[in-house]
């Protein structure tokens, strides 16, 4: 299996070119921490080297593709009269909630992660209720009888 983790620059979360945000995502750190380290390294350690390395990374690293963003996956859709339709052909992606345990780690604070997970469960419960309502309705029975003909 190929390692899917690759270093990209992320211009959507960028201040200049997205190099620091890309490095932060790659190593699982907060973006602000990487930016502070780069600025500190520029002023205290080797200013010209850090500057040249940043510019080189700007030109060498590819932009992060849109399909790799942490966008919400398309859940199974339920349409009345047609039953379950899944645009992903049976493959529903699960998004992981990354909870950070230390300040410098990337991820959500535990309180925010709890709210996100609770919202996901509420949405799932509402979808289940709609499905149960349809399956127990007379419309479902009628469509089932018509499809048998």
How does this model look, in words?
It is a single chain. The chain has a two-stranded antiparallel ribbon with strand order 1-2. The longest helix is centred in the last third of the chain and has 26 residues, at about 110-135. It has 5 helices and 2 strands. It has about 150 residues and is mainly alpha-helical. Strand 1 (about 75-80) and strand 2 form a beta hairpin. Helix 1 packs across helix 2.
Which features characterize this protein?
149 residues; 2 strands; two-stranded antiparallel ribbon
Query: Rounded to an integer, what's the Rg over CA atoms?
Result: 23 Å
Order of SSEs, N→C?
HHHEEHH
- Assembly type of the chains comes to single chain
**Class computed from helices, strands and strand pairing:** mainly alpha
Write the layout of secondary structure elements.
Elements: H1 19-27, H2 31-45, H3 47-60, E1 77-79, E2 83-85, H4 110-135, H5 138-148
Antiparallel strand pairs: 1-2
Helix pairs in contact: 1-2, 2-3
Care to give the gist of this entry?
The chain contains five helices and two strands. It has 149 residues and is mainly α. About 10% of the residues have low confidence.
């Amino acid at each position: 299996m190929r390692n899917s983790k690759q270093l990209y620059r992320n211009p959507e979360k960028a201040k200049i070119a997205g190099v620091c945000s890309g490095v932060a995502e790659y190593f699982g750190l907060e973006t602000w921490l990487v930016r502070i380290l780069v600025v500190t390294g520029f002023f205290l350690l080797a200013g010209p080297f850090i500057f040249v390395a940043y510019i080189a990374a700007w030109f060498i690293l590819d932009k992060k593709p849109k399909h790799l963003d942490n966008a919400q996956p398309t859940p199974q859709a339920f349409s009345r009269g047609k039953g379950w339709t899944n645009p992903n052909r049976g493959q529903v992606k699960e998004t992981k909630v990354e909870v950070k345990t230390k300040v410098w780690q990337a991820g959500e604070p535990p309180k925010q992660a709890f709210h996100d997970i609770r919202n996901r469960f509420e949405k799932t419960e509402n979808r289940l209720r709609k499905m149960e309502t349809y399956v127990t309705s007379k419309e479902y029975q009628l469509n089932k009888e018509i499809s048998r003909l």
